[in-house]
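Journal club prep — side note

Before the paper discussion, L.F. wants everyone to see what a predicted structure for a comparable chain looks like in token form. Sequence:
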Amino acid sequence: MKRRVVVTGIGLVTPLGTGNKKTWEALCEGCSGIRRIQKFDPSPLKTQIAGEVLDFNSATFMDSKDVRRSDPFIQFAVAATKLALDDAGLEITDELSPNIGTIVGSGIGGMETYFNTVLVFEERGPNRVSPFFVPNIIANMAAGYVSIFFNAKGPNSCTTTACAAGAHAIGYSLMAIQRGDADAMIAGGTEAPVIPMAIAGFNVMRAISTRNEDPEHASRPFDRDRDGFIISEGAGMLILEELEFAKKRGARIYAEILGCGMSSDAHHITSPSLDGPVRCMKSALRDAELNPEDVYYINAHGTSTPQNDINETRAIKEVFGKHAYKVPVSSTKSMTGHLLGAAGGIEAAFTSLALYHGILPPTINLDNPEPECDLDYIPHEARGVPIKVALSNSFGFGGTNVTLAFRRFDD
């Protein structure tokens, strides 16, 4: 029999703000975290907008030496973990340490460090490359820092599955607890991709929005006027615990995580297939021992790209049939933008909070729905609904898919 797993802590560093309360309130109010890029002059780029974490102060979470030596994607992960552990009221003592693990997803790793080091190499030569260059760019270093900073000596790993990385980290952490490899896991995703090279790369793919004159309305999932996603930065971390372990210490429980589905499109490196997301959602329902009619809400991948939004809508209809029109669906990327490898982490957190508070976050900027996108996407305003079961979808380049299934905790 599988051990039951619950969410007891949440840590959020997002374009809507640093901290759970700030992010969740802004999300429920339908606020946008998309602005003109401030960390560098974006004028030469076709896209000059992004979701930056403007209120983030790394010195609040790390000493100045560690800040100087670490890439922002590491700093976001450490900060979100500190927030999540504090939220859970979990102190990782030496006694507990071997049974608490860490899996942190990142689709890209230390891109800012890589980009800046290339410039240093070209301008000043190889001897000026920092000895911290390699540790800063490898994607698993976020998990490494988290483990070191917080004394987590259990399973330690990293998922690098593009935009599904954060969700994969949570799924594998769920499995680790279910099979007894750990009693608790620090799980989620982190990303710091707001650099000129990344934006230029997505521009030539025609994947991101160029609505520079109206950034707050640029991310518009399921809307016929969408023109691509918005690249964003930040981190979302969850504390997952085995149910009895959590109960024994009197933990507050946000939600129970029931199951995880994974699939591959085996189709195309960037263009989605219908089959992959359909099998992924069905797999999550099967793993969670749920029927389609049990689902009350879906936090969609919902990227605001022409291909994903139609394809995900078709997949939901294929899985849920007539019930698809009774299931509220929203894309919180309409407010946060797309945090790439961190997206699955923050969206799993949003799904857990929706269950806990009985509030479904909206899809903003849905002014003119794509004709084929005709489901209930909770347009414009959050909705107070006491839901019982919810799914969170994350799909990545390469055709990698994850669906997480959650239930409101009542016992």
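L.F.'s comment for the group: The longest helix spans residues 72-88. Keep this in mind when we get to the figures.
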